[in-house]
Specification:
The chain is α+β, with helices and mostly antiparallel strands and 274 residues long. 31% of the residues lie in helices and 28% in strands. It is built from seven helices and eleven strands.
């Protein structure tokens, strides 16, 4: 991918975000050229995304976006790439949407012949990366517990809705889940999905006792290899700005593609989106 087309990367990644959310949702609806998804109160898939590329979103469609989430008791949420048209931003602002946070999307080509195993440097002795058998219920639950641990405050139990989404995601046909072990102890976990030539890396956590030892880099390398085995020419990962995930990805050849804006419409009686 010598001539990088960031618009095309955004189209592919945002489409994947939308379709993945729909696959995990309990209810969903199309929105222009994208989707809205709801997975339960407190679910991380409660969002709308993937739209604003092919055509403008109408005022009636934006009203439907607000109603879709508000009628389910959660904050309306819109995740946008920087290629969103100004009319869409104005329409959301007119309906009370405000900026909640930014997310960084990083990309990396997966050229044929590259030795991806060399990307992970300084991995500890005794480290083993293992793909999880989706038919092994105990292994899947262990994966979800470890992968989800980094997304809740340390010492707190993972919410039930996170368990439900995590188990469902790990069993999707186009999803692969990986566990990292050090001397027989669970050290970290992460997943990936492949579609339309794009490998999306997600849900990575490393347990506190094993951090700063190269575990996350080894998990990234294993999933990149899996993506190329399944025909991908491009990998992408989404991260909060400035956290270890972003730094590790950039050490392994990822580059920043764009920042996503996460907009919400706060309202009384609505549960904030995670």
């Amino acid at each position: 991918m010598n001539d990088v087309n960031l618009l095309e990367i955004a189209r592919r990644f945002e489409h994947k975000q939308a379709t993945s959310a729909v696959e995990l949702s309990t209810s969903s609806a199309p929105l222009a050229d994208g989707w809205m998804a709801f997975g339960g109160v407190g679910s991380y898939i409660n969002k709308s995304c993937g739209y604003g590329f092919e055509r403008d979103v109408t005022g009636a469609e934006l009203d439907a976006l607000v109603d879709f989430f508000a009628s389910r008791g959660v904050e309306p949420k819109a995740e946008l790439s920087p290629f969103a048209p100004q009319s869409l931003l104005k329409g959301l602002a007119d309906r009370g949407f405000v900026l909640r946070e930014f997310e960084t999307v990083l990309y990396r080509p997966l050229p044929a012949g590259e030795d991806l195993s060399k990307l992970a440097q300084g991995t500890p002795a005794g480290l083993r990366i293992e793909r999880v058998d989706p038919s092994d219920d105990a292994a899947v639950r262990r994966f979800v517990e470890v992968a989800g641990s980094g997304f809740v405050p340390e010492g707190e139990q993972m919410p039930e809705v996170f368990w439900e989404m995590g188990l469902k995601a790990a069993r999707k046909p186009n999803s692969d889940s990986y566990m990292a072990w050090i001397d027989g102890m669970p050290a970290g976990a992460g997943g990936c999905e492949v579609s339309d030539g794009l490998t999306s890396l997600f849900g990575t956590s490393v347990l506190p006792a094993f951090r700063r030892r190269g575990v996350q880099q080894a998990l990234i390398a294993a999933r990149l290899q899996r993506g190329r085995e399944k025909g991908s020419d491009l990998a992408a990962i989404m991260s909060s700005p400035g956290i270890p995930t972003e730094r590790n990805a950039m050490r392994m050849g990822f580059q920043m593609a764009y920042s996503r804006a996460v907009l919400v419409k706060p309202g009384a009686g609505l549960v904030p989106s995670p």
